[in-house]
Specification:
Layout lengths: L11 H5 L2 H9 L24 E4 L19 H6 L4 E4 L3
Parallel strand pairs: 1-2
Length: 91
Amino acid sequence: MHLIIDGYSNSKEILQDEQFPANWLENYPPKINITKISPPYVVREVFARLSVLQLDTHADLHDEYPGTKYSHACVMRRIYELCPIIQVGGF
């Protein structure tokens, strides 16, 4: 299992603090009974020319589902707002 911090609902100050995700990943797993097997590893990259290739049977392009913009059915719509996407599906 991977724990991912969704940055959409956080302030810019929190997202720019590189210690925040490391501290959160260090302290949160025991609260939900997850055993850590390695220390937190935080990757933060900015790509000027990023595009995303999605291989999936579902397009995940809903603007909202059900009533939220951040559900599993909206993930590619949110990515498309940031960069070009190519979708291949129907496997």
